[in-house]
Amino acid sequence: MKNIAVLTSGGDSPGMNAAIRAVVRSAVYYNMQVYGIQRGYEGLMHGDIKRLTASSVGDIIHKGGTILKTARSPRFMTEEGRNQAFYQLRRHQIDGLVVIGGDGSFRGAQTLQGSGTATIGIPGTIDNDLAYTDYTIGFDTAVNTVLEAVTKIRDTSSSHEKTTIIEVMGRNCGDLAVYAGVAGGAESIIIPENPVTYEDVIHKLDEGRARGREHHIIMLAEGAGSASNLQQQIVEETGEEARVTVLGFIQRGGDPTASDRLLASRMGLRAVEELRAGTSDHVIGIDRGELFAESINTALTAESKGNEELMRLSSILSV
Amino acid sequence: MKNIAVLTSGGDSPGMNAAIRAVVRSAVYYNMQVYGIQRGYEGLMHGDIKRLTASSVGDIIHKGGTILKTARSPRFMTEEGRNQAFYQLRRHQIDGLVVIGGDGSFRGAQTLQGSGTATIGIPGTIDNDLAYTDYTIGFDTAVNTVLEAVTKIRDTSSSHEKTTIIEVMGRNCGDLAVYAGVAGGAESIIIPENPVTYEDVIHKLDEGRARGREHHIIMLAEGAGSASNLQQQIVEETGEEARVTVLGFIQRGGDPTASDRLLASRMGLRAVEELRAGTSDHVIGIDRGELFAESINTALTAESKGNEELMRLSSILSV
Amino acid sequence: MKNIAVLTSGGDSPGMNAAIRAVVRSAVYYNMQVYGIQRGYEGLMHGDIKRLTASSVGDIIHKGGTILKTARSPRFMTEEGRNQAFYQLRRHQIDGLVVIGGDGSFRGAQTLQGSGTATIGIPGTIDNDLAYTDYTIGFDTAVNTVLEAVTKIRDTSSSHEKTTIIEVMGRNCGDLAVYAGVAGGAESIIIPENPVTYEDVIHKLDEGRARGREHHIIMLAEGAGSASNLQQQIVEETGEEARVTVLGFIQRGGDPTASDRLLASRMGLRAVEELRAGTSDHVIGIDRGELFAESINTALTAESKGNEELMRLSSILSV
Amino acid sequence: MKNIAVLTSGGDSPGMNAAIRAVVRSAVYYNMQVYGIQRGYEGLMHGDIKRLTASSVGDIIHKGGTILKTARSPRFMTEEGRNQAFYQLRRHQIDGLVVIGGDGSFRGAQTLQGSGTATIGIPGTIDNDLAYTDYTIGFDTAVNTVLEAVTKIRDTSSSHEKTTIIEVMGRNCGDLAVYAGVAGGAESIIIPENPVTYEDVIHKLDEGRARGREHHIIMLAEGAGSASNLQQQIVEETGEEARVTVLGFIQRGGDPTASDRLLASRMGLRAVEELRAGTSDHVIGIDRGELFAESINTALTAESKGNEELMRLSSILSV
After folding, report:
1. Which of C127, C129, C140, C175 is catalytic?
2. Judgement on whether residues A73 and A168 belong to the same structural domain of the protein
3. Which residues of B touch D269 (CB under 8 A)?
4. For a disulfide at C14, which of A240, B270, C141, D23, Cβ 3.0-4.6 Å?
5. How far apart, in whole angstroms, are the C-alpha atoms of residue A289 and residue A219?
């Protein structure tokens, strides 16, 4: 393997730059040439491809976002788009490609089968919504970002004795709400996997008030409902105001935490080593602290391990 | 003056604790007794009043919120409520009262005229919506909190080349949007005092895209419109997605900045010294770095100095 | 088991409060009474012991330090001290005791054998110097605290093209230096377990400069040498200035990260459940994501797993 | 005025990038060409000069350090160096030069008299050691950086009931120690302008302990002594341990605060407008919120206004 390339695709996540750095420097270490592809598969089709060296990635490990930018590319899924991508890969004699992103990005990598370029995926998404791996790059940072917001809201809600709803990302996967909710001491956590009715939430709210609790924080994953609907229902049923915070894209930003940088660094090196070993159509994952590689197909059909332990912890500790 | 009390009222703001500490320790320095009244005028009516000592406030200077809590109290504006407050002030022989809050809190202080208790107000609100003073306690912290959010959004919006709308507090006063907008390099700033039409914003957005700008941050004060309305209009007119973040009560939280702690400390000492000097019905303010005291009436009728310099700066620098 | 107590001992670490909260609320959940012992074994001997309820720990999950305070207590190791402790435990009818701390604290727990009180240890130390467990409470926060310092130093050192030495905690265990060094992209990492000579460091420094590197960050664990000695040697051998930062007790502070709060919460619940199950003289640990309990003796004689993977990663990525 | 240039010189400070951005975009607004000179006067002599456009500075307002880098340049003070600088200024037809830095940088600007290039200085230094201006760019950020360290140390020192010495920058000017000390609630503040003897400090320490104070934070400006000497003296005279933190170059880093970005933005615009108005050999300053320009000579001989108000505040509030 002489020439490899790296791209980031889909939603960006903090730590993607640390992964890019690791891919580039590992390639340099193994005497390969390495290219950076701009704006994901979109840039691949357009040949937006540049050489990267060890110093191109000299000051990026601590930066959020991705220096390679990212884009969604519907056209890449057409035959024409795919052919353009094949052409560009051949033109730059790229033997191996590292794709950093989520499930859509991995599906993109699968369509490159037959191009003669080996592909390895690295999981980068703040949602932690890839069931095959314990953690994705960016998740730990996003949890801590949400947690900072909870801490700020605590200051004012304990001054005011109020209820606050915090809506966080997570369409299918409530991990962000669960981790940040347990770590933030939220009294209620509402996630897609474990739908509680709004009645349950309001019931707990009433109980807490009866016991003299001063504030009540509800962590809501966007996939499990809308903060403004819940807010309305609380007003109607309890007659009391509830406040809403929608964190939005703040959750994608921020300097990556140590954990995310280490995970990204380890996965970047492993991806390059897998390419050297002849692996293709695989993704890197982490299982109880150990890296592994498995086929994209297997990875995309994995079932979620769920959050029973943390949800139980929450119900015991948030009395 | 032998006995003074301090209360916080209205929306809490970071730095209120530093002001409480300063009031308490200044009182101790001048050999007065000092009481803390819980939950603003509500607690005053209920006699929720406790002695504070130098060590009661020993570890609060860095904490957001207010250890005295705060509440809104419609009943305080009734004659019955006022009489209860008078009774409590007499019962504890409180000669002077320091009220930390916004315009509503100062109006509350005015209704205590005739109680025999002298009153001094300290401006504490994150909105900076008290025109008589250059700055209020909590404003600098809130600006920096919004700024952190902008920085996080920058990470991801420059990776994605997208438009983001950030809705911040400010019903009548756009200072928070202006300061954070200029400091954050926002391309558009929309405030109640200087209403630009959404068309202007969209026009600027188009221009920027034409010139190759990668992202566009719109800072919107809540008093000047709703983020979701603006979002819809952008989609309709440009066909492009815009993202929304509603910071909500995060803006009230956080450890106070150095500026807010210093302002609060200075104002707390000054308030006590004004009480000692026999002043009443006055508020403390800051004018170009210098503290002053003026009557509540004068303060509440002051006109805003406006934000021309910063708005001009924004229009020049956010090309 | 009816009555349990909890204490923190040795150096404090961020997340101890989250562990205390978890112990208290788990005990409440299992219908036990729970006591907090102030200032570790010192307070135990003096009977500085108070009832804690679910609301005593209502607003502490996000706070650094320990609400129970901590102290070193040489007298506790004498027979007289131990007898006093026995007396206090009997007097309060404490059936089980949770000790949060490091190896010294666990040895303290061992001396309580024969008191009739079962003991369970929870690992709380920022150094991660307890070999039997993958992680200790406070370590993730400390790594991120050091990392923030590295990020700040990067700003200025890349403006200045200079060498910086950052001295971090770690007498016998270099984990803090290794994790923060790899995550911060430090060019050299010097730890007790893997002593490189200063010559090696200076050699790498020269190489980097020859290749045009703009700055060089050296992460030094205190157990592997002194920053000021290294600084002097660099000046002597290269003629160039190197700057020193000694982080000191900053490393013990800060709001705990999500990871530390989750680890602390999980361990707190587990400790209470172990006491209920009749376990004593054990400590809780974590092995690849799973909690476990093992005897204090076994734990204290465990051998470190070392840092080979991360040190190799560092040598590949910090070219 | 057609062509202007900008350079940063001396120690970097957070907000320099915001000032560079403001200079560049203001120049663009006034239809000038603008050049960035790398590494201060060193780069000027070497002709390390590049065109900057509005988009060159598109994503730097929030970044610490300086994209133009900075250097000390003894050779620039020689005739030969100065002549090289003159030559480069002529070669690029630079009519006006904005110098961002401290007193040394302003003296450098003075030596360019006779070159035909007008010069304007902008004060950028974290020490706030330029007496002619109330604030310098970077000072507010540095104060808040020190404050964060104090907050972290508070966590652990209140758990431990210990004394901590924090050594901060400031050779001749104690502003950083004073502002951060008052805002952080430090019990003792030692600065060059107002030398207290170590005995005074130790006396206050004893008093505090007698009154039951749990911890004692000493803020020491480097110009007023060494933390390790003070530490030793405390041990000798009180028999108790004191802990030392030397913040070092952390103080130069960090994202600039809102205040520093606004100050930098305003000063950058003003500098360009002064050049357009034909001013030279002047510096921009701020006096009670208002910008002004005055001659470098006058500025460099200004006398410090001192810190009486804050030092008095400290002595009253840190009982």
Report:
1. C127
2. no
3. 313, 316-317
4. C141
5. 28
B28 is in an annotated binding site: no
Q: Are residues A46 and A172 in the same domain?
A: no
Residue with tokens 């480069």: D88
Spatial distance between the Cα atoms of B91 and B89, rounded to a whole number of angstroms: 6
Indicate whether A212 belongs to any domain: yes
Question: Mean pLDDT throughout B296-305?
Answer: 94
Inter-residue contact A38 to A134 (CB < 8 Å): no
Higher pLDDT, B237 or A180: A180
What torsion, rounded to 10 degrees, do the Cα atoms C97, C100, C105, C107 define? 50
Give the residue on A whose Cα is nearest the Cα of B253. Answer: A152
Q: In what order do the strands lie in the sheet with C290-295?
A: C49-52, C33-37, C3-8, C96-101, C118-123, C282-287, C290-295
**Do residue C68 and residue C196 come from a single domain?**
no
Note whether A182 and A245 are same-domain residues. Answer: yes
CATH number at residue D214: 3.40.50.460
Q: How many CA atoms lie within 13 A of D292 on its CB side?
A: 14
Distance CA C287, CA C266 (A): 13
The Cα of C36 is separated from the nearest Cα of chain D by a number of Å equal to 14
Give the Cα separation of B189 and B215 in Å (integer). 15
What value of ipTM does the predicted structure carry? 0.95
Q: What H or E segment, with its residue span, contains residue C287?
A: strand C282-287
Domain enclosing residue D198, as ranges: 140-253
Domain identity same for C17 and C101: yes
In one letter, which amino acid is C235? V
What are the residues facing B7 on neighbouring strands?
A: B99
Whether A58 and A155 share a structural domain: no
HEC string of B207-271 equals HHHHCCCCCEEEEEEHHHCCHHHHHHHHHHHHCCCEEEEECHHHHHCCCCCHHHHHHHHHHHHHH
Domain count, chain C: 2
Region of C167 on the Ramachandran plot (φ > 0 left; ψ -120 to 50 alpha; else beta): beta
Rounded-to-integer distance, Cα B84 and Cα B70, Å: 18
| Residues D68/D32, Cβ–Cβ less than 8 Å | no
CB-closest option in A212, A255, A289 to C151? A255
Interface test with D, best of B262, B269, B318 (most D CBs within 10 A): B262
Residues A263 and A120 in one domain: yes
pLDDT per residue as tens digits for the range C254-311? 999 999 999 999 999 999 999 999 999 999 999 999 999 999 999 999 998 889 999 9
Looking at residue A158, its pLDDT comes to 65
